[in-house]
Structures are given as structure tokens and as C-alpha cells.
Amino acid sequence: MNHIVQKFLEDAEKNSFDKEHRKRLNFNIGRYDAQVEKGKEQYQNLELAKRRAANIKHKTINNLDKYLVEFENNFSKRGGKVIWAQNEKEVHREIMHIVKRSKAQVIVKQKTMLSEELEINELLEKNKREVFETDLGEFIVQLAGEKPFHIVTPAMHKSKEDVAKLFHEKFNMPANSKPEQITQFVREKLRSEFIRADIGITGGNFLIADVGAVSLTENEGNGLLCMAFPKIHIVVVGIEKLIPSFEDLDLFLPLLAQHGTGQHITVYNNLVFGPQSEFETDGPEEMYVILVDNRRTELLKFKEQRRALSCIRCGACLNGCPIYKSIGGYTYKATYSGPIGSVISPHYLGMKEYNHLSFASSLCGKCTEVCPVKIPLHELLLHNRHEAVTKKYISYTWRTIVSGWKMVMLHRWMIDKPSSSLKNRMITRFGRKMWGPRRTLPKIAAKSFKEQWKEMRP
Questions:
Q1: Pairing label, strands 81-85, 199-202
Q2: CB of 241 within 8 A of CB of 216?
Q3: Same domain as 352, residue 441
Q4: Is the pLDDT of residue 148 over 90?
Q5: How many Cα atoms sit within 13 Å of 45 on the Cβ side?
Q6: Looking at the DSSP assignment, which residues form a beta bridge with residue 286?
Q7: Is it the case that residue 432 has pLDDT exceeding 80?
Q8: Which ranges of 214-262 does DSSP label H, i.e. alpha helix?
Q9: How confident is the model at residue 1 (pLDDT cuts 50, 70, 90)?
């Protein structure tokens, strides 16, 4: 067993039995669930909306080359610059080239999971630049020296008391500060950083091919300020974020909001077509869109798993997953956690080292049920498992056990012949270690159902 798997199992067990940890998750996800139910009321036929969104994303992913070129051509017409980056190393090189050329010292960032995947904060800090996360949740975890706990809600694992204590330690605020007071403090602090900033970095919720625009949706206004104040705006976005048409936004924006936070639509919805034009009074003087591959085209090679690239990062599958709700986001040791992370992370980080994530699922299908673009996540987890077994990434011992179990299940006499006492001894000896010390092991009856039925119906 490699050290990554061992660490996962240790953390999973620790967090599963941490009552306070699970209490916070259940409370926050419970509030989310209640809000999402209200959000669904705006739809007359939610299933139809999801099917349409799934079809659009399916078409886009299968014609990605065409839509990427269309986006680049339309975006470039308005003075924007598109940079293609194959991997993390190329993204780092391009960002630092812009930073050094412009002599930028202060960078403000909107929440973007891709920047976490690419470790952009670490890059900038290593090069002695000041970088500020401007989303409240991201600011909190940055301050704590942590990574986002959840795709949508970065500080979901922290209570208001935890946050108050953190701000007391970092800024000498009162230890009993209320959330409203902390929010006001962060707002005032970040406003000065927006004014100082030389560069603003954002992600992109959608790239719109036919008009060459970047769509950004948010609730705090910080994304808009990251674009409006600095002279340079850099969008770091995965190549899978494309949608074909401007008209598709009226479908995707409400779906993202409703499944992400339960809102009918998020508070701020921005469309950026390029840098400031001669007729505009604000906006960046330069705008770059860095289109990032970083092994996404590797995932495209798979006929089934490529459907995971349709994800719009709403986080609904995390909130519905009984495994995530038990072990939390940090246990996965990957940027993307929960069911979607368990599908894509093994392909991004290496199937050999991270295939265990695809086995960390009950396969209950809740993730598939709640997905707004109808990704069959629980089925894709099975495809990942199949690949891991086929390539012999699973240990020889476990493969031998499963092969033996398969042979027994295919031959009824192997189940019937051993006595119940022998079966119970085998379960006690091997089952306790495999199933864990906290489980009550099953006890085999003296007579099987088949034997009892024959006695009752001779």
C-alpha cells in the first residue's frame, strides 16, 4: 500500500469519527439542501433543463477543437490576447512573464479552483509578490495557511468561532467578533488592496465561443473589482469551460446558481469581451486569457470518462455525497474532492497513485441524481476502477481475494458445502481486519435459506 493511500485511510477514519467535524459539515450542507429545494421552484421542468444543458456540454466537449479556435478568433478581435498552456510549468512561465514585464508587485485574485490546481499563489509568493484572495471564504483559508475545503464553499469546515479566533490571532480583532464585523473588516482591508493592485487574476465560469467572451458569476463583487481596478486582467481557465453560444447563458447561469447555492441567479454576473476600449471609462488596459490543458486532453481520450469534463463546478455532488459528508474535503489530498474529484483527479494526478479515490464511493448514485449537466458520476467511477484493475494498479493480494470471491459466487456448491461454523470462523478471522473493528460482523445461520426452503416445501 503506497503512502498516499495509507494517509487517505488514516485521515478518513479520523474525520469520520470526529463528531465536531461532521457536525459542522452536516449543519452547513443542511442549510444548502434547504436553500436548493427553494431554488428548484423557479423551474417548471428541471429535468428538461438538465437534459438540454447536458446535450450542449456533450456537443461542446466532443467538438472542443472547433469551439476553442472560434473563441480565440472572436476574443482576439477586441484586443484580448489568448495564451495556450499545456501544463502547470507553461502557465507559471506565462504568468511570471506578464508580472515581470509589467513590474507588478500586488496581485488580487478572484476565487478559482484552477489557480489552486496550478498553485499560482505559491508561485507568486515564491517570487516575492503580494497576492490576496478576495473571496471571503478564500481569504479566510489563505489567512489560515490552508487550501479550499470545498469547490464552492472554501471555509465550510470552519465555525464562526474558528474564524473569529483566526482574525483575533492575525489582526487582533476581538475574540468574540461576529460574522458581520469580520466581513466589514475584510471588505475595508481588501478595498485598499484593489486600489493598489497591478494585476487581477480571475477564473472563468464559461467561455462563450460565438462572441469571444468570458462569463464570471459571483456573489460578493470581488470578481468585478479584480477586473475593473488593475491595469492588467489575467483569466486562467480550463479548456473545458466552453459553451457554444451567448444564448446558452440563460440556461447555464440559473442552473449553476440553483445547484451551487440555491439562488435563482447569483448576484453579480459579468461578461468580459476584452480590455478597455476607447469608448469605456474603466477596465483593464491589457487582458489575457490563458487556456489551460493540464491533462484535460488525456481525459478526452476516454470514451466514457470524458463526460466529466462537462462539469460546471457547482459542488452539488459534494453536498449530496455520503462519503464527502463523512470524511470532508481535505482527506482527498487533491484540488477537486467529492465524486467529481474522484473521477477526474486520478487522471490529472496519476491513476497509479490516486485510483483509490475512485473506490471511495458507496455508488449510491446521489451524485448522478443531483448533477445539473447529468454526468453519470457513479458509472464513471466504475470505469476508473476497471482501468485501475486492468492496468494492475490494484495490489496483488486484493486482486487474488476478488478473483477467489468471483469463483465462489459462480459456483453454488462452494457456498453450500462448508459448514456454518467454518464460514463463521473465516468471517471472524478475515472479515474483522478487512471490514474494520467497529463493524458488527454477520453470523451465518446453521441452515441456509435454500435448505430451509426445501424443508418447508419438500
A1: unpaired
A2: no
A3: no
A4: yes
A5: 5
A6: 232
A7: no
A8: 222-228, 249-260
A9: low
Q: What string of H, E and C letters represents the secondary structure of 74-95? A: HHHCCCCEEEEECCHHHHHHHH
Please identify, among 270, 294, 318, the residue that sits at the C-terminal boundary of a domain. Answer: 294
252: cell is 447555464
Q: Cell digits for 386?
A: 476497471
Strand partners, 199: 107, 232
Co-location of 211 and 352 in the same domain = no
Residue span of the structural domain in which 426 resides: 412-456
Q: Crossing angle of helices 338-349/377-390, nearest 10°?
A: 30
CATH number for position 326: 1.10.1060.10
Q: What whole-number distance in Å separates Cα of residue 289 and Cα of residue 81?
A: 6
DSSP element (H, E) containing 108? strand 106-109
What are the φ and ψ backbone dihedral angles of 383, each rounded to 5 degrees?
A: -65, -40
Helix, strand counts (H, E) of the chain? 25, 10
- For residue 436, is pLDDT > 80? no
Nearest to 292 by CA among 61, 92, 123: 92
Question: What does the block give as the cell for 8?
Answer: 487517505
Q: Return the H-helix or E-strand segment holding 349.
A: helix 338-349
Task: Quote the pLDDT of residue 237.
Answer: 98
- Count of CA atoms in the C-beta half-sphere (13 A) of 23: 4
The three cell numbers locating residue 245: 453560444
Does residue 314 share a domain with residue 289?
no
Q: Within the chain, what is the greatest distance between any pair of CA atoms? A: 93
Q: Report, as an integer, the average pLDDT of 425-444.
A: 80
Which residue spans within 150-222 are E strands per DSSP? 199-202, 206-208, 213-218
- Contact yes or no for 296/237 (Cβ under 8 A): no
Separation of CA 103 from chain center: 33
**H or E element that contains 291:** strand 286-292
Q: Name the one residue in this structure whose C-alpha cell is 475584510.
A: 186
Is residue 290 classed as helix, strand or coil in its secondary structure? strand
The answer to whether 154 and 133 have CB atoms below 8 angstroms apart is: no
Q: Nearest 5°: CA angle at 161, between 155 and 165?
A: 90
Residue 270 DSSP SS3:
strand
Distance between CA atoms of 132 and 107, rounded to whole angstroms? 6
